[in-house]
Amino acid sequence: MGxxxxxxxxxxxxxxxxxxxxxxxxxxxxxxxxxxxxxxxxKYYLQLKAGQKEAAKEAxxxxxxxxxxxxxxxxxxxxxxxxxxxxxx
Length: 89
Known about the structure:
By secondary structure, the chain is α+β, with helices and mostly antiparallel strands. The chain is built from 3 helices and 3 strands; from the N terminus they run αββααβ.
C-alpha cells in the first residue's frame, strides 16, 4: 500500500485511512509435499476527487515495479491486483 500511496501523493491524490484501503487474500497450496503461498490477491479501494481518476490509474499501472515487497516475491508468487475508484465530493 505504501508504494502506491507514495505515487498517488506525487499526483496530489490523498490516501488517508478514510479514503484508501486494501483487502488482501492468498492461496496456499501443496506443491510437491510442501505448503507454499502460490497467489496473493490485493484489491485497493480509493476515494478521490473528480478529475483524478486518470492520474490514479497511471500510478496504479506502474507501482508494482517500484514496490519492494512485490519485487521480493515476483516470479515466486503470482500477484493479482485491482483498483476500485470512487469519486467523492
